[in-house]
Amino acid sequence: TALFERETVERYAGYLCRVLAGMAADETRAVDRLTLLSAEERRRVTEEWNHTEAPYPVESYIHERFEAQAGRTPDAVAVVFEDRQLTYGELNARANRLAHHLRSLGVGPDVRVGICVERTPELVVAVLGVLKSGGAYLPLDPGYPQERLLDMVQDSAPLVLLTHGSLAGRLAGLDVPLLALDEDAAWWGSRPASNPERGALSPENLTYVIYTSGSTGRPKGVEMTHRGASNLLHWYLGATRISERDSVLVVTSFSFHLTQRNLLAPLFVGGRLHLAREPFEPGRIASQIVASEITMMNLTPTGFQALVETDGGRAIGGLRIVVFGGEPLYPRQLARVPEPRPEFLNPYGSTEATGITTHHFARADLASYPPGRSMPPGRPIANARIYVLDGAGEPVPVGVTGELYLGGVGVTRGYRGLPGQTAERFLPDPFGAEPGARLYRTGDLGRWLADGTIEFMGRNDAQVKVRGFRIELGEIEARLAEHEAVREAVVVAREGEVGDPRLVAYYVGEEAGAEVLRAHLAARLPEYMIPAAFVHMDALPVNPNGKLDRKALPAPEFASAEGKYEAPRTLVEEVLAGIWAEVLGVERVGVHDQFFELGWHSLLATRVVSRVREVFGVELPLRALFEGPTVAEMAGRVEEMRRAGLTVLPPVVPTERTELPLLSFAQERLWFLEQLRPGEISYNLPFALRLRGALDVDALERSLSEIVRRHEALRTVFRERDGAPRQVIAPFGGLRLPVQDLSHLPQETREAEVQRELVAEGGARPFDLSAGPLFRVSLLRLGAEEHVLLLSMHHIVSDGWSMGVLYREL
Which helix (H) or strand (E) covers residue 604, if one does? Predict the structure, then answer.
């Protein structure tokens, strides 16, 4: 009973009986063909948990739903970008004029139109204009390398490409007509403002073609139909309850599948669509959320994490709902947002099946999720199905890991111009009643839980998710192998912090240097596909069978090369080196170390900029890190800005080793609340670990002591000086682990005492911010080989992330 629930054991016993019966019935049958599932359980996992049929407007097309809304509220604001606005009437008229012009060029059902436009109102005009013309749009992110943009355009063969005049040079050399939405406005802007007729458009025609990473070294285009898009958007509107009262902020790349539903959904119901300027800078986004009273946004968990770190989650706390996508979501990322929190919706899916197949609303009690586990993908959305199948394509029992297959109306046509890969990944649906129904084979692993939800269990191939983007590692390897110095190349995603994988490239050949190889890939691949580290090897490791042994690939060393470390020379350099080391997760950073050689990615860069703003009070532009990617260069830029008076906050450069003059925004808020209500207990963060097995209490005490010695935050107190709070780091004086023996009590009483102690740590025992310590620990002995370790910290020195660091180190 310590390991299994009764229902689980009874189910396992049933499986065993069916295996024995199958063996007795046919001794020649292969073991892996024996049936575990009863007819009832098979019906449950294939039919009952996939009973999702629901009406949706299959005959009402996306642009027609927008037209209906524009007719109802022509004067309401539809799109906002900085100081520009378009009403529903203005947006509809512009999109109509563009649609009539595209029709005159020959655009119609299944004809592709490329859109390479920055995130401005013209982007929304272009999307609606293409849909109104009956064509299918091709999202092209202007930030992608020129070679990748050309690959996608050549593969998709659009009839025309919509862009801005300033971007036309990046698309030169293509045998495709360009239409500049700004410079050629007089050409298409004189067309009729009336809604075009539907024409021969059908639900099976294309809505858009969107490209994903390809294992061959070239991106592959996924073809989405109106039927699938209409179902997804209809479900999405109901699940998120978007209305005319909502202001929805779009911050993700136009070439990302989750962006499509957020560009369109608010415009069906009279909401306001707000566009964030590129690139993604958390400080600016947080300010926009507050200033524009944003109620909803969709972003990746990695982007969310960067946003929370900017202001302690205050901006996000003002939202009504946050919708995630693109990568696993961990409850600890949500727990960092202060109460009251918005709703959190975690969808799961694939570009090949409209981007969403299942969904899960996070429970209010985030601590109830198992530690280290990602948020479950949940249950299928309307008219979608999901199956967990074994290698033979048969359903697996509850609790058994298998491959996830997606079905329903959201399954796309397949890959454009790739019949072989389409046939490999899109298979006939043996469980669906609809003629011609297909399943998409995801390569993801998962299992059914007893309540009918899905739990994600990883991947079964070399495909990974990094910061929301799906990446075929083979594409990076193929591009890397094109360099003359590289004979062999392997790329892996190594997990750093939970939920933050970093790409690492290993290569055999001449030692070319990380900077050279990075530049080689940057000309061919988008930034999110460029490895954080390049490791030169004499030979790649192999196992006894002669195959590549990925587990034997050495971890990269994100640190100063031997003999090249140079210590900080000024206080500013010292603080910046500490910020870099903290964000990048390295032991130390020298003043001349390159940020891009220490395991960087773009969101880590935004975190550095946010910390610089918080500590030094200067609004350092993100490009400054790319222009001067060393501590010395950044320090020079910071000092120059401060001398020029370009500060937005009071500076907080340390003047003493043991004192940090000012507090962060979040700390200042908590300190202020403590002054209002001394002994405040709302920000106690209790944490309990149940330890089973033989325990060396002395070793545990020494380990905890070492953690306190290493982490100054655990020795920090807050004292007022000259009318302002200061952080003071107390000298390390060791740590004593109190032990309370409860083993003599009855079991029920012991457990009640554990709960009482945990509740006490959470609220009954306040911290003294000025005297400290702000970290407490004790051990409850329940038996010879069972203990509970209680830890508690004040939120002013820790958060959910800190708990994760402490847990891993311990």
Answer: helix 602-616
Q: At CB < 8 A and 24+ separation, what contacts does 13-18 make? A: 14/38, 15/397
Residue 371's φ and ψ, nearest 5 degrees, are -60, 135
pLDDT at 585: 73
State the number of CA atoms in the 13 A half-sphere of 149 facing the CB: 26
What is the C-alpha radius of gyration for the chain, rounded to an integer number of angstroms?
A: 29
- How many other CB atoms sit within 10 Å of the CB of residue 628? 15
CA atoms within 13 A on the CB side of 359: 20
Q: Are 199 and 108 in contact (CB under 8 A)?
A: yes
Q: Assess contact for 447 and 400: CB atoms under 8 A.
A: yes
pLDDT band at residue 97, thresholds of 50, 70 and 90?
Answer: very high
For 214, the enclosing helix (H) or strand (E) is none
Q: Which helix (H) or strand (E) holds 395?
A: none
pLDDT in tens, 458-499: 767 666 766 656 677 877 887 888 888 887 788 888 765 545
As a whole number, mean pLDDT of residues 542-570 equals 68
* Phi, psi of 210, deg, nearest 5: -120, 140
Helix%, strand%, coil% for the chain, nearest 5: 35, 20, 40
Cα 472 to Cα 499: distance, rounded to the nearest angstrom: 18
The residue count for the chain: 810
Banded pLDDT at 704 (limits 50, 70, 90): very high
- DSSP character for 599? S
Q: What is the pTM of this model?
A: 0.64
Question: For residue range 760-803, what is the model confidence (pLDDT) as tens digits?
Answer: 776 668 888 888 888 999 999 999 899 999 988 888 888 766 77
Tokens of 86: 């378009």
Tokens of 47: 């039919």
Cα(176)–Cα(140) distance, integer angstroms: 14
- Check: CB of residue 269 under 8 Å from CB of residue 242: yes
Q: How far apart are alpha carbons 144 and 572 in whole angstroms?
A: 35
Residue carrying structure tokens 């992110």: 141
Mean pLDDT of the residues in the chain: 85
Answer yes or no: are the C-beta atoms of 150 and 140 closer than 8 Å. no
Q: CA-CA distance, 540 to 524, in Å (whole number)? A: 25
Q: Which of the two residues, 539 and 272, has the higher pLDDT score?
A: 272
